[in-house]
Fold:
Amino acid sequence: MTYSPPLGQPPAGEAALAHPRLVVVGNPANRRVAFFRDAVRAAGLPEARVEPWLDVLRGGARFHPGETVRLESPGEDPDVDRLLRGTEDPTRVEGTGRWYEAFTAATARLARSVGDAGAVLVDDPAEPAVLFDKRLAHARLLGAAVPVPDSPTSGAAAPPVRGWADVRSLMAAAGLRRAFVKLAHGSSASGVLAVETNGAGRVQATTSVEHGPEGHLFNSLRVRRYTTEREVAAIVDALAPDGLHIERWLPKAAQGGRVADLRVVVIDGRATHAVVRTSRSPMTNLHLGGVRGDLGAVRAAVSAAGGRWSDALGVCEAAADAFPGMRCVGVDLLPAVGWRRFAVGEVNAFGDLLPGLTGLPGSGAEGLDTYAAQVAALLRGRPARGPARTPAATEDTPRTASTPSTPSTPSTPGSSRT
Structure:
């Protein structure tokens, strides 16, 4: 990466910005809120005020002139989840369609309340509505020439997926023998199935979804495999009313005999933090048994393959640049076998939960965790966004390129757990 001044240091010749009065909309007991408030305190700023998501959803949130308001994830709170999804059991998979409608309506009301009070939002409230619909987000990335997995469900005009019959038909028409079937509004691998078919008609799927009594689906911490089409079809049919997205399952590079991908945090258009995630299953999420890998070894592998680490980060910055209303996103970067090519699996609105991880060398966030780096960026103000770095396209660069029994703790939309 090219050198740029530390995030907390104003550009030469510019006066330091006045200290903002920060408000975080979140769940008060959530560690995300605690990390952000700790970062605010460490920066010597006034204590960040907390406006609970429960108050927002019930219409009781209040803001004041001059405040700067940051939205945090509404996940991991059973009362908030109950209002958003309409279910009493936070481990249930179903309900993401209702969650999406309730969340986007709440953020729109919130934006009006903030504006009417004379306060300002850190992010454009219209962006999460795109980020939390994988079909819309995929189309946005594709339109920005960011390499993403092929998908027959990309964009608002894509055909609906009403059940397993549609999944089979769309996969066949797109020539997909292996695909990820995802909840359009899911996160944290909730409801994700890695589906495999063969010429003989055999179907199997790897997923963390557990089939419970009365046909209900639950999130589990154990990844399992369903080996009959009947089982796979039953799960897909139950998920379909919430909306489904299909993507090509791309073979990923490996580290230590485990498949690998990366979560890269991009703040104000600059890749600042990265963590390698490795797994023996198609899902690399750490709460599903994934473990952190060796970032130094990844950089060495990219270099040994004749590639450039800066190009990999450039793909992430290009993905973030497709959502200019967001000051911070977490990009899931998928390295192809051989470590020469990269694609973007997802862009996460709340993808910054990487406790203890400090900034990349040359990023300007050295020594800062993801929350401290965001506070420093707020002190700088919003910079002009120039074109992000992107590697030169080659004929084998994916244009549309995937990441791939006790009920678990909640894994609901908005949590974006890595």
Observations:
- The longest helix spans residues 96-116.
